[in-house]
């Protein structure tokens, strides 16, 4: 059978075997292809597959050790600024060297997943007047770990299927997320628990720059997106790194209610409401509890004031739409919740990290703050 490969209707009519054969041929190195052409072809293929898997954007950086970032990370850790995120203190040198995550690492593929939805920002809702509190935008819908992992798995399977014929049987995917510090496979992914500095790689891969609030900012999309990284032994063409566009703006520093953002682009997690209301086990630290304001779970203030988020477009991703009752919930509703999983619908939700007892504790702090004259 001959078909015009540009004709989509004709392609649909191809048998499954023929489509598979063509897909395989497409992934094989063309005779006479130069190493640069092979790299460019594999780069295009992987970027296409990442978008097909459902990611919003993809960028690539050349894998390399990051001694400067390691020094900054170690200073931050030495000052105890990581708060209760003890896992960040585990083996900073591996965290800053992808070669210790994947033996022979050549590239870091960084994928972005937008989560902004068409709902107001923190400062556009009369929270106190209506007896409501704020849940961070990222936690309104499904747990992003679950959403991103599914797509990363799909990406891994399609890359392995496409490239194994030319890379050989030794080329293997991760068969799951990165286990901390295991350097045995060729395509290892993680969503934010792996030993990878995701924002640093995001900037290097051209997906944004690290703003003064330390979050990665895309000049058009703003900062409401999740990041995930794949460390791989496949050599790929890197993208140009993104440059800094914060300029003289200090909106995030000025708006932070706890002065957690330092002048040196470091956030002191011990002062950060987001850290306290998500990561802290048990009662809120008293100094943060006094300043918690309207924040029930997480805090979006330093993102909501960022000018680059002013014009970001909703992503039309149903998974990240607020679950019923979780956009600015009533405090009274939080106090009435009884059963952790059923009442909160916490299955597959990022809210389960703090749990019902923790949410109630924070709700109490919000309420007490409002009673003060
Ligand atoms: S999340 Fe909130 S408390 Fe933390 S740095 Fe941003 S504005 Fe400050
Ligand atoms: S608010 Fe201003 S300083 Fe802060 S991250 Fe956004 S652009 Fe940069």
What can you see in these coordinates?
The protein is α+β, with helices and mostly antiparallel strands and 373 residues long. The protein is built from 14 helices and eight strands. The chain has helices at residues 8-12, 16-27, 35-52, 67-78, 92-95, 144-167, 198-204, 251-255, 273-278, 286-291, 301-304, 331-336, 340-344, 355-371, and strands at residues 57-62, 107-114, 134-135, 187-190, 209-210, 216-217, 225-232, 295-297. It has a four-stranded antiparallel beta sheet with strand order 1-2-7-4, sandwiched between helices. The longest helix has 24 residues, at 144-167. The radius of gyration is 23 Å and the shape is globular. The N and C termini lie far apart (81 Å). The chain binds iron/sulfur cluster (2 copies).
Task: Please provide the ordered H/E string of secondary-structure elements.
Answer: HHHEHHEEHEHEEEHHHEHHHH
Euclidean distance between termini CA atoms: 81 Å
List how many beta strands DSSP finds.
8
Helical coverage, percent range? 25-40%
Class from helix and strand fractions: alpha+beta
Kindly provide the radius of gyration, computed on alpha-carbon positions and rounded to a whole number of angstroms: 23 Å
Name the ligand types: iron/sulfur cluster
The protein's oligomeric status is single chain
Q: How many domain regions? A: 2
User: Shape, please?
Assistant: globular
Number of helices in the DSSP assignment: 14
| Percent of residues in beta strands | 5-15%
